[in-house]
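User: Predict the full complex structure for these chains.
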Amino acid sequence: MILKKIFQIILVLSVCSGFNRIARADELITPRITASYFKLSNGTKRITVALSAKENDKRVNIPNAELQIITQNETVRTVLGSIVTNQEGKASFDIEPGITLPRDPDGNYTFTVLFGGNTKLDKASQSIHVTDAFLEISLNEQDTIKTITARVFKRNEKGEKVVVPDVPVEFNVKRLFCLYTIGNEKTDSSGMCSTEFPSNMPGDKYGKVTIVVRMPDNETFGTVEENKDINWGKLLVYQTKPIRGLGDTDAPLWMVYALLVLLSGVWLHVVYIIILVIRINIIGKKVIKS
Amino acid sequence: MNQQEIAQQKLVEIFAHFGKPSKFSKGLFVFLILIILFAFYAFILQITRGQIVTGMRDYVIWGIYEVNFIFFIGISYAGAMISGILHLLHVEWRKPIIRIAEMITVISVLIGPIYVLLSMGRMDRFLHIFEYGRIQSPIVWDVIAIITYLACSILFLYLALIMDYALLSDNQELKIPSFRKKIYRKLAVNYHETPLQKKLLNRGLSVMSAIIIPLAVIVHSVLAWIFGMTIRPGWHSTIFAPYFVIAAVFSGTAVLIIAMWVFRKYYHLEEYITEKHFKYIGLILLVLAGLYGYFTFSEYLTVWYGSETWELEVIYKLFDFSDYGAWFYLAAFVGVLVPMLFTGIPFLRNINTITIGSVVAVICMWIKRYLIIVPTLETPLLPNQDYRPEYVHYHATWVEWSLTAGGVALFLLFFMLFIRFMPIIPVADISEVPEKKDFISEKL
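Assistant: Here is the predicted structure of the two-chain assembly.
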């Protein structure tokens, strides 16, 4: 009896699952848009977008999809432009400094990323709300201690700059391929935080380093970055003379000399023997003549 | 005609006899040529189809070609060490056997490097060694050392031949074509045995004897360093250079004994190559076998005791009878003990047993070289992913065996050609050997 019940349940579930699959085949897939805000040190605002969808229980990136970037407040809706995702389903849109964007009464920006949909994918949109923040950095050197100080501001309703406390700030030095983090701090009540610059950090041949301070992935402000160049690094001394070692093109000098001495030692003796043979020949000729 | 002239004339007659090949010689010549031609076919096949016709793959990149290379360079020690040392020490009994030793040196140094070329996937790139070679590389040292060694070996052999060529070119009884006599005359560089000429020639021989010994040591040390300077189990050892040198002198001496036996038997040189020579050289073989055994024990004991994982992997392959165990014990024990027994125990010691001991030593030394190269290459530090079994386990193909046989045939063929144009026993020198009582020989 119990077995019969279980069989009925399995049958019903299988039929339902089959219907479900047929239904899903006809349905459009809803893509997921992930958008983030990034404020560069030159004031450029960058919206980075990633578009993906779930297909056969796997998340896949959607390439070549056109996305609209819109900014709006309660009264104004402006289309800033459109972008196309790359093979990784990613795209970014830069808003040059100086372009006036509509704000809400609190002074915040709203950006909406809109995907129009296609034959397989449904329409989708994602909005982000960010407060415009400002990051200032100052570099001080006292005796041998070098300090980087960061200060974070935002604008209040009146448009005045006010400090932002308790915000994580990341201090980095720009290296060839990535950023090297030298400190992670939080702003104090005066919106300031500082870290010490390491004395052994290599710079270029003039000692120049680029200090990059960031407020990373903040819920309110997005990512805000500021950088400054300064000659605090250790001077990079270029190797002017070629190194002579086992792994180098040129052999160590002792090895060259040893080889020369050994080879010339043997070959000079060979030459000496040949001279002896020639002398034997000359003496022989004289004997024949006499 | 005095006693000396009679002795010389007898040797000239023997030499003239070499010039008239017997049916057996002709048959052997044809047989060797056939082997060489077959080896040449294998060589063409390797060139046209590539290294895939060999057993060498991604892991084992050096197979029996490299084994043959080390083997031939090793046996070249016969001339360099035996001939060089005995000459420097003015050992009188060396004279009947010294030429054989010098011939072995030149021929083996000519043949050995061919196998390095055969190991190369692209032989046309051999010249890159000279164009782009780095002095830091032991392979470059090896090329330089072998070229120098070959030049010195040829010069050493030639210097010793000058007196003989002078004697043969002037000998009226020697019935050989006139062009050959002309060539001998040219090669004799007008040597008339004047006191000054004799002095200069002896000086040259002494200088070459002194140079050829360290040169031979360097050549085989460099060869050992090609392995020793590679951080691989079974190779990375500080004693590898002296170990190689001892192994080379051991195998070189054994080959010399075999050659002495063959020439004595086939050309009836019993009067010249006597039991005394076998016993003396046998004594050298006994000492070398002891030294070689000592080095082998020292090498494997140190590595085994160190218990380094990667090293142990190779060691256990060598100790395991299901792997290389049988070959290892043959090379390490039989190859040492049999020559020692036949040369060390007085009642076992005679011409034939000493020669049998030498044959065993030569075979075991070839196997030893195989065990140095192949098990190590079959044990990589990081195995490739999804490798095929044939990529790991090396088995020489018929192409490699044919070229190996071709090398041995070429060695014998060169010998046959050499003895037609060069007296195998120094004609000019032998008559000077005083027949004095030999106490050491009696004791032996």
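The longest strand of chain A covers residues 45-55.
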